[in-house]
Write a structure and sequence with these properties.
Pfam families: OMP_b-brl_2 (PF13568). InterPro entries: Beta-barrel_OMP_2, OMP/PagP_B-barrel. This is Opacity protein. The protein has one helix and nine strands, in the order αβββββββββ. It is mainly β. The protein has an eight-stranded antiparallel beta barrel.
Length: 207
Amino acid sequence: MKKLFLSAAVVVSSLTFAQQFGIKAGMNVSSLSKDADLSDQGSKIGYNAGIFMNAPIAENFSIQPELIYNNLGSKVTLNEFDVNNTTYRTEYARHLDYVALPVMFQYNATPSFYLEAGPEFGLLVSARDKRKNTENGTTQNSVKSELDKDNFNSFNAGIGLGAGYYFTPQVGLTARYVAGLTDIMKDRASGDAVKNNVFQVGLAYKF
């Protein structure tokens, strides 16, 4: 029994020693989709930023929990027309901001390259809409409106798949797709569930 506890202590100590902490930031390309039709999506550019911890759990495997701020949502063009060589466009965007906790299980194919998969859990902190009118790409007016968070589910869950490559032991490029599992709206009487989907790309730095 003493040998068992000693072995466990050695393993825990080695994992603690091998832990690495870091920061990450990047771009989101997000959309909102319905179960019945995943092809008709309007995507929007957003951002993500946060911190992470990477800890080995086996020779080629590690676990990476993260705490990130995620700007999700979607953008669609409501109308667009040309008059006298001037293009008029009205765009509508929904911004949903979450504090997210991804927990990624990583397979380290090489010391520099890894594949990952795992769940992501999020808490809604902000919901707003933005409507913008442009002429030949120049913004003429823009209206922002805060939305009642009580109409949205505060909890969001998804499943992520991704990969990463470290150019140096500290600096790496990351890419991940997270497919939503939960409806963003609360108490939906009818209709298809609307879910968050996002492709993320960014840079990571390990201390």
